[in-house]
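REQUEST ID: PR-0412
SUBMITTED BY: lab tech R.K.
PRIORITY: routine
TASK: structure prediction, single protein chain
INPUT:
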Amino acid sequence: MKLLREEGWDAVTQARVAAASGVGRATVYRYWSDRTQLIRDAVVASLVVTPHILPTGEFRADLIDELRYLRHYLTENDLAPVLAALVDRAEWEPDLMQVKCDLVDQGMSMVHSLVARAVADGTLRPDVDPNASVSVLAGPLLFRRLLSNEPTDDAFLAWLVDSYLESHRFKSRLRPARPSNT
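STATUS: complete
OUTPUT:
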């Protein structure tokens, strides 16, 4: 993972992994005959490094906290280069497509769960799709980290969640104005 994060896809070879880990090349080749499987196993092993937030029941606060969790992984743990490498290679290597999907599912499982619960308890409209909500909420963080290098500070996260809530909560119905008798 360190080679992948720091030097990219081409740096991850059995020989480089053996040298970096101090293990013999034959041992590395015995367990990973191809580089795709080596990277797959490294990514899968790193999927569950830190638990997600523990929901408090306050939907807005829980969403913001979970987006902080994602921000942490994209910046502090430097998941972004690994994700970029997976996105690049997954288009041509079906095994890596599944690794990429597993990584996204694991990373976004709590956002999905929070939204599904909010739909079930009536906090959000019944037509809200948790899968689409993951895209709406996580997409801006991924865009800012991978493409625009804009900050994702706490104020941005609060704005993002508040914008989402504004468009996905029940809205009060306005009664039509009564016609006047004039």
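NOTES: The longest helix spans residues 94-120.
REVIEWED BY: pending
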